[in-house]
């Protein structure tokens, strides 16, 4: 028992940003690993068409959830994290979220007949239930995040996602298909919210008009910005569903999900830094803001760049062995989306820092240009090039968005990339790529185990080389482990 307490004490002595990022990273890895296995099961059991229908459900849920949130969720995290009247801001956000949700649900019921496919598959009811559950889940999660408990928030989210997968696998086994996948998703959100509530410290209090006004000023631009982010993440799915069939939606989203392994560190660090950057900006600690940005980008690219290299060399075989021949045709799309995730690192951090530093208007201006370009390019390219056209549209607009966001952020802080670390990451990735390429030439990739061996060898070689080339990364990781 004393040894356990000593270990816990040492863990708590780790820098809070690093500690909470490690917790976030752990859950990202755990969820992605389980998610890959479950999606393989779904792909082989129900096929691309059923998966495509479910992915459309998640796209519509994302769109309508954004409307019900109205940007107030991010505004609440911002105001609560500043430490001034957190209970009042939480209470105001909950009431606003409830009002918006009631309005959206009533509108959807009025126009229910227009959702023909959703009504037929039984997904419409699950869409309404998902929105109603979010009335509780959203404010609880924002309250926990605003009080700086990102490790708890991420852990609860991870438990919820794992619960979702378990319930979805059970539903598919029992023959519920798309409705079972949607139902498992809703249940997972509810489970996460109930666990998270155990660590919730805020309470309902009377709030005044100035609290709503303060949230509204920030949420207006945040809503518009999050709408742009949603376009990047969901518009391609919706437009593929419009111009093509559900099977193509399934193939595209599987390829996109496959690339998410490149975003482990990006999401872990980003969610941990948001409330802290907000606090540093409020207190004028600009040096910490600038340093955290440069380190955050470096640690995100430490995974994104080698995943791009390995995915280009082995992606076709991995899609074939993991998901089946029906999904292997998404390999050209996969290569483009892997490049998207590298650009996504810069886009995510630049726009996140604009929002966290209380410049959501600048973030919206940047995103608005990308939104228009994304929609236009998707409409132009999908009918001509199919799902690869959607991937190209995302890559072009993501690059545009990252460039404009960097330009806006550079007016506020000094952006310094760690060129030496980035060069070390690229160098290690190149050596790894040469090794994997030689392996593929010499060893026929006739089964999944031979292919996975190439992945393991490449990963080990890359990890050793990065630690050997970059003493700064080595010392930081060594200090955390010790």
Give the SSE map:
Blueprint (H helix, E strand, L loop, with lengths): L1 H11 L3 H54 L2 H10 L4 H25 L5 H6 L1 H24 L3 H24 L3 H21 L11 H35 L2 H14 L4 H20 L2 H38 L1 H4 L2 H26 L3 H26 L1 H23 L9 H24 L5 H22 L1 H11 L1
What is the N-to-C order of secondary-structure elements (H for helix, E for strand)? Answer: HHHHHHHHHHHHHHHHHHH
- What is the alpha-carbon Rg in Å? 22 Å
| Biggest β-sheet description | none
What portion of residues is helical? over 70%
- Tell me the structural class: mainly alpha
Number of helices: 19
Distance between the termini: 20 Å
Task: Tell me the fraction of residues in β-strands, as a range.
Answer: under 5%
> What is the number of strand segments?
0
Q: Average the pLDDT over all residues and give the rounded result.
A: 80
Overall geometric form: globular
Low-confidence stretches: none
How would you characterize the overall build of this protein?
With 482 residues, the chain is mainly alpha-helical. Helices cover 87% and strands 0% of the residues. It contains 19 helices and no strands. It has helices at residues 2-12, 16-69, 72-81, 86-110, 116-121, 123-146, 150-173, 177-197, 209-243, 246-259, 264-283, 286-323, 325-328, 331-356, 360-385, 387-409, 419-442, 448-469, 471-481. Helix 7 (150-173) runs antiparallel to helix 8 (177-197), helix 12 packs parallel to helix 17 (419-442) and helix 14 (331-356) runs antiparallel to helix 15 (360-385). The radius of gyration is 22 Å and the shape is globular. 50% of the residues are buried. The model has no long low-confidence stretch (mean pLDDT 80).
């Amino acid at each position: 028992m004393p040894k356990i307490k000593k270990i816990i004490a040492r863990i708590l002595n780790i820098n809070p940003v690093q500690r909470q990022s490690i917790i976030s990273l752990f859950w990202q890895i755990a969820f992605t690993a389980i998610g890959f296995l479950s999606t393989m099961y779904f792909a082989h059991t129900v096929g691309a068409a059923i998966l495509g229908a479910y992915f459309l459900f998640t796209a519509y849920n994302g769109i309508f959830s954004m409307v019900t949130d109205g940007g107030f969720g991010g505004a609440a995290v911002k105001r609560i994290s500043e430490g001034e009247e957190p209970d009042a801001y939480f209470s105001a956000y909950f009431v606003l979220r409830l009002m918006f949700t009631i309005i959206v649900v009533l509108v959807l019921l009025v126009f229910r007949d227009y959702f023909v496919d959703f009504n037929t598959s039984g997904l419409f009811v699950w869409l309404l239930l998902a929105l109603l559950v979010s009335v509780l889940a959203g404010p609880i999660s924002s309250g926990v995040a605003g009080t700086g408990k990102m490790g708890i928030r991420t852990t609860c989210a991870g438990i919820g996602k794992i619960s979702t997968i378990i319930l979805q696998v059970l539903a598919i086994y029992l023959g519920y298909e798309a409705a079972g996948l949607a139902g498992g998703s809703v249940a997972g959100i509810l489970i996460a919210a109930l666990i998270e509530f155990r660590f919730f410290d805020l309470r309902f209090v009377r709030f005044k008009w100035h609290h709503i006004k303060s949230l509204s000023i920030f949420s207006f631009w945040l809503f518009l910005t999050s709408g742009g982010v949603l376009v990047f993440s969901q518009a391609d799915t919706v437009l593929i569903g419009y111009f093509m069939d559900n099977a193509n939606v399934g193939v595209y989203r599987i390829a996109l999900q496959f690339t998410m392994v490149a975003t482990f560190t990006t999401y872990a660090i980003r969610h941990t830094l948001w409330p802290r950057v907000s606090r540093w900006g409020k207190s004028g600690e600009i040096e910490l803001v600038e340093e955290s940005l440069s380190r955050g980008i470096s640690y995100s690219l430490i995974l994104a760049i080698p995943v791009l290299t390995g995915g280009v060399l082995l992606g076709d075989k991995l899609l074939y062995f993991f998901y089946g021949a029906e999904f292997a045709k998404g390999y050209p799309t996969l290569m483009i989306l892997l490049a998207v995730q590298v650009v996504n690192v810069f886009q995510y951090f630049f726009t996140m820092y604009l929002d966290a530093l209380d410049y959501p208007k600048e973030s919206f201006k940047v995103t608005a240009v990308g939104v228009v370009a994304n929609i236009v390019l998707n409409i132009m390219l999908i009918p001509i090039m199919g799902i690869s056209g959607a991937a190209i549209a995302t890559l072009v607009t993501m690059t545009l968005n990252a460039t404009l966001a960097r330009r806006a952020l550079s007016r506020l802080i000094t952006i310094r990339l760690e060129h030496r670390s980035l060069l070390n990451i690229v160098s290690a990735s190149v050596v790894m790529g040469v090794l994997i390429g030689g392996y593929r030439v010499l060893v026929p990739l006739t089964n999944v185990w031979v292919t996975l061996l190439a992945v393991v060898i490449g990963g080990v070689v890359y990890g050793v080389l990065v630690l050997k080339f970059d003493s700064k990364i080595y010392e930081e990781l060594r200090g955390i482990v010790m």
